[in-house]
Amino acid sequence: MPLSEREPQLDSADPAAQFAAYLDYYRGAVERKLRGLSDDELRTSRLPSGWTPLEMLTHLVHMERRWFRWGFLAEPVDAPWGDHEAEDPHGRWHVADDAEPGALLDELLAALHDGGTRTSEILAEHALDERGARGGRFTAGTPPTLLWICFHVLQEYARHAGHLDIARELSDGAAGE
Q1: How far is the C-alpha of 146 from the C-alpha of 63, rounded, in Å?
Q2: What is the pLDDT of residue 19?
Q3: Rounded distance, CA 120 to CA 116, Å?
Q4: What percent of the chain has pLDDT over 70?
Q5: DSSP output for 34-80
Q6: Long-range Cβ contact pairs of 174-177 (< 8 A, separation 24 or more)
Q7: Domain residue limits, the chain
Q8: Is the domain defined by 27-172 classed in CATH 3.40.50.1820?
């Protein structure tokens, strides 16, 4: 197995560096699961819940941006709930029907990794016990700490990478990694 596909070997007492390394690892795992799927497989659900691999990828791009940029920093972002139908936070995930799947995959993976670069910058510039800014995602109550956000986003990636493992295995038999 290439080194880039292994769990991060970073041995650091810096939790922010550990979070950045593990988030990068899971972004890579997501990409590995999606590369090699045909355009049809990217748009086909094999599960009762109905989500497709492209919808999952769209969700991950928006999810990370919602938590770190719109949430923690309170930066304005376009369509924070754009991964959901009608931008309803409780709506079903979706992608544009007219987008070419292969081109969309490349575009979304670039957005995923660009978002990861921004997340790593945020982790390098802020203390983990710092609370999110008021505005953006957090308009009422006490915003969570950056540490809480990191754990939440990491568990989202880990859980959804596992979902993609299942979808990929059902699609073409590729398993693991």
Answers
A1: 15
A2: 96
A3: 6
A4: 96
A5: HTT--HHHHT---STT---HHHHHHHHHHHHHIIIIIIIS----S-T
A6: 174/33, 174/36, 177/1, 177/5, 177/29, 177/32
A7: 27-172
A8: no
